[in-house]
């Protein structure tokens, strides 16, 4: 049987098989290239993300370094001391030494240059990666164009996935709505609680202000009652320092029972009280005289001169002596505020006060001068009453309303402010507040005789007792005109004037 010859259908079948094989090979090749391109793209995107993260971290480090080097100090450089930490250069060098240690560069510029080179390298790498990314993106777009048909096959799967996602999202939305409702309720409850808290806080603030006002009123009442009680009772917890053992009125000398064993000093002054007095240091009206120690005779004996006495209350043995400035073997402390005028001549006697206090072995722990400034020892910047303060002594406090000069008004206000602060502290510590005159009476101070200096502007009050027409006549004070008698005329060629024997009208018995 003869073999059959291939027909047209055989050739078509063979051609179809060959085309199918070629199409399969081409499709496989395209699929493989596409997978490789996706892998390269994902790797490129990962590398680019890493590079971006590294670049951002490096940029943050540069900004942080700029902030650290941005030291804002007034002085830039101390040429005498380049490493002065209070200057920008010194602080930068110190920071480089402290934080850079052995890795620190010699200058900030070297360090910045090194970092700049690293940044430039990173930027170049990023530029290269971006270029590579742009190239791969273009290739990806070309591949997407060529594989549109393949992408269409995934649309159905994508739509199904989106449907499933909407279903899941709807479920999650319901849960989120429930949570939002719960959060809204909690927020409303919190607002209600905050409103109640604010109302409670306002009520407590109002109550506290009311209590503070009541406290201030009670403090004023307490201070007023304390002052009234002191004026009524005149209570003093001071004790006498000693007593007079012998009196010689003819020579104005007394002897006291204090001496070297009591660390008594010469020139110490004491005020004198009756032996049956209710208490020493109560008021100046109890003082019957003053004495000044002239000689320490023995361990328990000293001689003193009478500096003032009362004709109707003569000094007698057994009378008590007292001064607040002296205690055996102990240094007393006092505070002074106001103008210090010891003899009433209108002049400041602060130096004399210091001598009086220092000669008694006492100290001044707080003092305000005539300008309103503190005079303190021990490096203190603010005055403070302590338990060691014996008296707070008030001198004359200037009235700002009576002054015109701005500097004097400012000084007066400052003096009164410091007086108020110290007096409040004295009340808290139970420190007694006395006037300067009472203090001088307690310490037995006797004003020295004033000396008139030619050309002195302040007039002196003269007592005119020689021309009184009757006994104990009150003539009042008269001021000297300051004119020199004609008997002392500078013209020496004229003979001295002869007295007429007539009393001047300035010394008449009546005005």
User: Approximately how much beta-strand content do the residues carry?
Assistant: 5-15%
Global mean pLDDT = 79
Fraction of residues in helices?
A: 40-55%
Q: What is the number of strand segments?
A: 14
The total number of structural domains is: 4
Figure out the total of helices: 7
End-to-end CA span: 188 Å
What form results from the Cα inertia axes? Answer: elongated
Class by alpha and beta content: alpha+beta
- What is the N-to-C succession of helices and strands? HHHHEEEEEEEEEHEEHEHEE
Please compute the radius of gyration using only Cα atoms.
Answer: 52 Å
Secondary-structure blueprint of this entry?
Layout: H1 8-69, H2 88-100, H3 108-146, H4 148-233, E1 242-248, E2 253-256, E3 269-273, E4 289-298, E5 301-309, E6 320-322, E7 326-327, E8 330-331, E9 333-337, H5 350-359, E10 363-368, E11 389-394, H6 406-429, E12 432-435, H7 436-443, E13 461-463, E14 477-479
Parallel strand pairs: 9-10, 9-11, 11-12
Antiparallel strand pairs: 1-2, 1-6, 2-5, 3-4, 3-6, 4-5, 7-8, 13-14
Helix pairs in contact: 1-3
């Amino acid at each position: 049987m003869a073999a059959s010859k291939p027909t047209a259908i055989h050739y078509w079948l063979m051609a179809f098989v060959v085309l199918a094989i070629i199409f399969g090979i081409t499709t496989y090749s395209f699929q493989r290239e596409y997978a490789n391109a996706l892998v390269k793209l994902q790797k490129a995107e990962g590398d680019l993300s890493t590079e971006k993260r590294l670049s951002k971290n490096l940029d943050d480090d540069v900004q942080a370094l700029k902030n650290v080097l941005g030291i804002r100090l007034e002085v830039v450089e101390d040429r005498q001391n380049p490493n002065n930490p209070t200057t920008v250069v010194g602080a930068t060098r110190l920071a480089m030494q402290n934080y850079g240690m052995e890795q620190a560069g010699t200058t900030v510029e070297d360090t910045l240059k090194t970092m700049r080179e690293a940044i430039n390298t990173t930027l170049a790498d990023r530029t290269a990666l971006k270029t590579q990314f742009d190239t791969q993106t273009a290739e990806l777009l070309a591949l997407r164009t060529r594989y549109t048909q393949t992408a269409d096959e995934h649309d159905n799967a994508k739509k199904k996935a989106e449907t499933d996602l909407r279903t899941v999202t709807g479920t999650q939305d319901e849960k989120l709505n429930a949570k939002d409702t719960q959060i809204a309720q909690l927020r409303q409850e919190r607002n209600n609680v905050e409103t109640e808290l604010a109302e409670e806080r306002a009520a407590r603030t109002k109550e506290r202000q009311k209590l503070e006002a009541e406290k201030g009123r009670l403090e004023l009442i307490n201070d007023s009652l304390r002052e009234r009680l002191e004026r009524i009772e005149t209570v003093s917890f001071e004790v006498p320092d000693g007593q007079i053992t012998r009196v010689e009125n003819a020579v104005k000398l007394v002897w006291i029972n204090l001496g070297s064993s009591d660390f008594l000093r010469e020139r110490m002054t004491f005020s004198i009280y009756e032996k049956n007095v209710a208490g020493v240091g109560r008021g100046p009206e109890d003082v019957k005289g003053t004495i000044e120690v002239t000689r320490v005779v023995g361990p328990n004996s000293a001689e003193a001169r009478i500096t003032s006495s009362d004709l109707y209350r003569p000094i007698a043995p057994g009378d008590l002596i007292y001064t607040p400035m002296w205690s055996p073997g102990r240094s007393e402390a006092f505070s002074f505020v106001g103008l210090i005028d010891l003899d009433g001549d209108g002049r400041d006697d602060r130096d004399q006060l210091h001598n009086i206090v220092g000669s008694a072995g006492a100290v001044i722990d707080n003092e305000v001068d005539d300008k309103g400034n503190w005079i303190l020892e021990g490096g203190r910047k603010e005055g403070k009453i302590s338990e060691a303060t014996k008296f707070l002594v008030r001198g004359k406090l200037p009235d700002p309303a009576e002054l015109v000069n701005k500097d004097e008004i400012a000084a007066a206000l400052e003096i009164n402010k410091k007086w108020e602060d110290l007096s409040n502290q004295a009340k808290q510590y139970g420190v007694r507040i006395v006037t300067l005159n009472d203090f001088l009476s307690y310490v037995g101070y006797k004003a020295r005789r004033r000396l008139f200096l030619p050309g002195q502007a302040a007039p002196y009050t003269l007592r005119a007792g020689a021309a009184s027409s009757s006994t104990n006549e009150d003539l009042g004070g008269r001021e000297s005109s300051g004119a020199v008698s004609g008997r002392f005329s500078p013209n020496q060629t004229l003979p001295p004037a002869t007295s007429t024997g007539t009393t001047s009208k300035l010394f008449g018995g009546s005005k």
